[in-house]
Specification:
The chain has 296 residues and is of the alpha/beta class. The chain has helices at 11-21, 27-34, 44-51, 111-122, 143-150, 155-170, 186-198, 215-218, 234-237, 240-249, 276-294, and strands at residues 68-77, 82-91, 97-103, 126-130, 175-184, 204-208, 225-230, 254-259. The longest helix is centred in the C-terminal third of the chain and has 19 residues, at 276-294. It starts with 10 loop residues before the first helix and ends with a helix.
C-alpha cells in the first residue's frame, strides 16, 4: 500500500472515517457514505483500505534495537479484570530512570503503541504500554477485531486495570519513582482520568487529542499537563478552552497546542491522517515535558 496523506482525501471522507474509528458508525455505514467519493475506478472498499492502519509504517525503533530491552509483563489488577498484560521497554544499560505509562487508542495494544514505548526507551525512559484488551484475549492483530473486542470490556474495570498498571510502573525498583503518562485518542482521555485520580502520584501528563474531564474533576489534577490537539479535530479540540480555563483555575502548570491543518490521530504514523510536521513537533514537546518534570 502506498503511503498517502490526509490532503489526498476530502475532509468529509476523513471525518466519516473518524466516526467509524470511534464506533459511531459501522463499516457498512462508512462504505455507504464513502460511495460518493469513489471515483476514477476507486471503490468505497478501496478507500477504506487506504485509510486503515498499515503497521509496517510505524517502526521507528526496531524491536531488536540494541539500545533497548523489551519484554511483556503482567500486572495484578484485583479491582479490575484481575490482571493486565503490557509491553515494557527500557534502555539496555541504565538504572533508576523515570517511568512513562503509554495508553493506547480504542483498539488495544497495537504495533504503533509498542513502537511509541520503544521511542520513549531510546529517550532514556522506562515505558510500559498496558493492553486494555487483556481480559478478552489481548490485541488480536487486527484493528477491526480489536474495536469489536474493546466494546466487550467493562469500561470501569478497564479503567482500574490502567490505574493498576500506572501504580505498578511507578513503584518498580528500577524506576526513579516519578511517573509520567502519555496517551492517544481514547488513551488521551485515560491520561486525563489518571491525572484526576492520581493527584500528586502522577508527575507529568501528555494527552494527545483526549476527551477532557469536567471542571470539578480538573480541580483534582496536580500533574503538569501538556495537551496536544489537531485543528481539524473539532469534536475533541473544541473542549480545550474550557479545560484550559479549569486548569488555570486549579493552578496546574499546563500548555495546550493545536496543530494547524492536523486531523485527529495526527501522531499515528500508520494512517493517512498522520501529519509528520505536527507529530514531530508534538513528540519534541512530549519529551521536553517529561524531561522537565520527571528528571527534576
Amino acid at each position: 500500500m502506498d503511503r498517502r496523506k490526509a490532503t489526498d482525501f476530502p475532509q468529509e471522507l476523513l471525518n466519516l472515517f473518524d466516526l467509524y474509528v470511534h464506533g459511531e458508525i459501522d463499516r457498512r455505514s462508512f462504505l455507504r457514505g464513502a460511495r460518493k467519493f469513489a471515483v476514477g475506478g476507486v471503490t468505497a472498499a478501496a478507500l477504506f483500505d487506504m485509510l486503515r492502519p498499515n503497521y509496517a509504517w510505524a517502526v521507528q525503533v526496531s524491536p531488536d534495537d540494541q539500545r533497548i530491552k523489551t519484554e511483556y509483563d503482567t500486572v495484578p489488577s484485583p479491582q479490575g479484570n484481575g490482571s493486565i498484560k503490557g509491553y515494557l521497554a527500557r534502555p539496555a544499560n541504565a538504572d533508576k530512570l523515570p517511568c512513562v505509562v503509554v495508553i493506547h487508542e480504542n483498539r488495544g495494544l497495537n504495533p504503533y503503541i509498542e513502537d511509541v514505548a520503544r521511542r520513549l526507551a531510546v529517550a532514556n525512559f522506562i515505558a510500559f504500554a498496558p493492553d486494555g484488551l487483556t481480559s478478552v484475549g489481548g490485541y488480536p492483530g487486527d484493528d477491526e477485531k480489536g474495536t469489536t473486542l474493546f466494546r466487550q470490556v467493562d469500561a470501569a474495570k478497564m479503567s482500574e486495570d490502567f490505574y493498576a498498571a500506572a501504580m505498578w510502573l511507578k513503584s518498580r525498583p528500577d524506576g526513579a519513582g516519578r511517573l509520567g503518562a502519555v496517551g492517544f485518542c481514547f488513551g488521551g482521555g485515560i491520561v486525563n482520568q489518571l491525572a484526576v485520580r492520581m493527584g500528586s502520584d502522577l508527575a507529568a501528563a501528555v494527552p494527545f487529542y483526549g476527551l477532557q474531564p469536567s471542571a470539578a474533576d480538573t480541580a483534582k489534577i496536580k500533574a503538569p499537563l501538556n495537551a496536544q490537539y489537531g485543528e481539524l479535530d473539532t469534536r475533541i479540540t473544541g473542549g480545550w478552552p474550557t479545560f484550559d480555563a479549569a486548569l488555570t483555575e486549579a493552578q496546574v502548570p499546563h500548555e495546550g497546542h493545536i496543530y494547524k491543518g492536523a486531523n485527529h490521530g495526527f501522531h499515528n504514523d500508520t494512517t493517512p491522517r498522520y501529519d509528520e510536521a505536527a507529530a514531530t513537533e508534538a513528540w519534541r514537546r512530549t519529551l521536553d515535558w517529561f524531561n522537565r518534570y520527571l528528571r527534576s
